[in-house]
């Protein structure tokens, strides 16, 4: 099993953010999959998460036994927003959150993963 399979569409993920003042916050979301080697999730009801990401665009995401660290871009229209709406029929999508993966860590093996592999 590759690290990418833990972040595939439909997988439950734990997002962790921090406010500008360093106050941590976590949220559970469903993955919309990896697109162009970036992770896409939809913001449907994540008020604190979105506020934190606007103040501090760094994020940590747990999927299975893998941890991703990266930066985010937030879209309220366009290609990524349209994909988020199309793939989320249950809730109203406010924004698409696109995560650029900077680091992948295997929590089971306690080692960094080559993000270019798999």
State the name of the first-level CATH class. Answer: Mainly Beta
Shape: globular
Proper CATH architecture: Roll
Q: Approximately what portion of the residues adopt beta-strand conformation? A: 35-45%
Mean pLDDT level: 91
CATH topology tier name: Pnp Oxidase, Chain A
Q: Write the H/E string, N to C.
A: EEEEHEEHEE
The CATH superfamily is identified as Electron Transport, Fmn-binding Protein, Chain A
**Secondary structure: helix percent:** 10-25%
Largest sheet: 8 strands, antiparallel
Query: Number of folding domains?
Result: 1
Number of strands: 8
Low-confidence stretches: none
Please compute the radius of gyration using only Cα atoms.
14 Å
How far is the first residue's CA from the last residue's CA? 9 Å
Secondary structure category: mainly beta
In DSSP terms (H or I, runs of 4 or more residues), the helix count works out at: 2
